[in-house]
């Protein structure tokens, strides 16, 4: 018994080619766009960080001292330290392109990258609830 038929392999390859093409186009469109990082604690905006400053620093938010952030000179930001058990937030690595995000759910911290001058009127909305 064959696991895949020839047609199945062709469909999978077509899907992979489209996925890679869309990812490449997305990076081309949004990689040069000025961005800011919004840091939320318990679904409330706590801090906005400009990624284009060219300054490297580490900082914490006063609402939760367990998460340490690192802003890099190249315009990226990451979770540097956290006391959460799974460390998924740290494994997310550097983010800096519009649309990327990282979250530390045990500490109720979410960090997302948005355009510096906001989204246009035709952009999709997002609802963050409790």
Structural overview:
The model has no long low-confidence stretch (mean pLDDT 86). The N and C termini lie far apart (49 Å). The relative contact order is 0.17. It contains two helices and seven strands, in the order αβββββαββ. By secondary structure, it is an alpha+beta fold.
CATH superfamily of the largest domain: N-utilization substance G protein NusG, insert domain
**Regions with pLDDT < 50 over 5+ consecutive residues?**
none
CATH topology of the largest domain: mini-chromosome maintenance (MCM) complex, domain 2
Backbone structural class: alpha+beta
- In terms of DSSP E residues, the strand content is 25-35%
CATH architecture classification name of the largest domain? Sandwich
SSE topology sketch:
Layout: H1 6-30, E1 35-41, E2 44-50, E3 57-61, E4 64-71, E5 77-81, H2 88-91, E6 101-104, E7 109-115
């Amino acid at each position: 018994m064959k696991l895949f038929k020839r047609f199945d392999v062709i469909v999978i390859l077509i899907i992979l080619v489209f996925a890679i093409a869309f990812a490449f186009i997305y990076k081309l469109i949004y990689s040069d766009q000025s961005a800011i990082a919004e840091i939320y604690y318990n679904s409330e905006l706590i801090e906005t960080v400009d990624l284009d400053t060219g300054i490297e620093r580490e900082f914490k938010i006063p609402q939760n001292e367990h998460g340490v952030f690192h802003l890099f000179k190249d315009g990226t930001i990451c979770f540097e330290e956290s006391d959460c058990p799974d460390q998924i937030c740290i494994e997310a690595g550097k983010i800096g392109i519009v649309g990327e995000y990282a979250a530390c759910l045990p500490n109720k911290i979410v960090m997302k990258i948005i355009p510096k001058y906001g989204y246009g009127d035709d952009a999709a909305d997002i609802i963050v609830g409790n």
